[in-house]
């Protein structure tokens, strides 16, 4: 928590310094990592849906999901797409963030796309084979990491017996190939891309084994900004709902936007269904994550779900 607190403290200081002029800006920067989870925002930008709703929006790539809360509070971005786990830990740490709209949720398709990808030369036949291995996660305490730890616990493996390090999505293939880590926690289209490159294989489909339907990523903002921009948040939600319908029904449009933002080959993105977009987020949707994180001793306080989602 020391590193997190330091990073967030810097974010808070910058936020205080920049709040005044930021509130007068019409442009909204949305920060997300290079996955399909923020596809609704990507489509809303590319298809002119935000503009139709009177919003001037740009997408900003964020390398590590756990950096998003500090980016929001430093006003580098006004809206971010943190994973449920990153958001909850940031709020637990004292940051006044609030969810303003849903982005993606787990479902059978997205769960199957999640994997622990293992480099050549490493054999994983069962969960206990991860003991002593160096495993890269795209954000410690972020979605894929917490989900994997939950899976290890359910399989009777002590998470502390695994050495976790942070590895960004774009660098996973190079780090796996070089032997810098034994495995990475990743998802499509990165799984297919690394498989096709012949640098390793899937060691576990842990998302599918857990089989959950909870939120993966949602759009969040500083509570102060959201409450002072109620009309903007309303337009944002309407635009995201319109774009989510496209993501869930038009593979071509969704794939084009995802490929453009993530800089992944279009043919590879088209081969992988995007995560299901669910714009409606309710406080109770976060209850399972709170239980899981509490069991992993990631939360120090008792969070009130009613205060986590903007009315």
From TrEMBL:
Any idea where the SsuA/THI5-like domain is? 38-249
Q: Which species? A: Bradyrhizobium cytisi
Which Gene Ontology cellular component annotation is one that this UniProt entry carries?
A: periplasmic space
Family per similarity comment: Belongs to the bacterial solute-binding protein SsuA/TauA family.
Q: Which Pfam families match?
A: NMT1
* Subcellular location, record wording: Periplasm
Q: Does the keyword Signal apply?
A: yes
Keywords linked to the UniProt accession = Signal
Q: What is this protein called?
A: ABC transporter substrate-binding protein
Range of residues in the leader sequence: none
Against InterPro entries, the record matches this protein to:
SsuA/THI5
Q: What is its main location?
A: periplasm
């Amino acid at each position: 928590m020391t590193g997190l607190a330091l990073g967030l403290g810097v974010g808070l200081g910058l936020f205080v310094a920049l709040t005044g002029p930021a509130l007068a800006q019409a442009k909204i920067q949305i920060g997300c990592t290079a996955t399909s989870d923020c596809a609704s925002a990507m489509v809303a930008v590319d298809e002119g849906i935000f503009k139709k709703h009177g919003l001037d929006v740009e997408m900003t790539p964020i390398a590590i999901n756990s950096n998003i809360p500090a980016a929001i509070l430093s006003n580098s971005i006004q809206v971010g797409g943190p994973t449920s786990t990153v958001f909850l830990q940031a709020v637990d740490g004292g940051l006044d963030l609030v969810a303003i709209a849903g982005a993606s949720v787990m479902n059978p398709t997205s769960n199957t796309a999640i994997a622990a990808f293992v480099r050549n030369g490493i054999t994983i036949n069962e969960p206990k084979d991860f003991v002593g291995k160096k495993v890269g996660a795209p954000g410690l305490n972020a979605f894929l990491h917490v989900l994997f730890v939950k899976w290890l616990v359910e399989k009777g493996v002590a998470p502390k017996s695994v050495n976790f390090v942070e590895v960004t999505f774009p660098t996973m293939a190079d780090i796996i190939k070089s032997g810098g880590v034994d495995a990475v926690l990743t998802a499509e289209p990165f799984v297919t891309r690394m498989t096709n490159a012949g640098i390793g294989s899937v060691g576990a489909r842990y998302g599918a084994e857990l089989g959950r339907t909870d939120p993966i990523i949602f759009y969040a903002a500083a509570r102060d900004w959201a409450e002072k921009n109620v009309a903007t948040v309303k337009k944002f939600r309407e635009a995201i709902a319109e774009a989510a319908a496209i993501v869930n029904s038009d593979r071509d449009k969704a794939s084009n936007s995802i490929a453009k933002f993530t800089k992944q080959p279009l043919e590879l993105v088209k081969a992988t269904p995007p995560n299901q977009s669910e714009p409606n987020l309710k406080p109770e949707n976060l209850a399972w994550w709170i239980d899981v994180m509490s069991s992993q001793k990631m939360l120090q306080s008792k969070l009130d779900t009613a205060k986590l989602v903007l009315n």
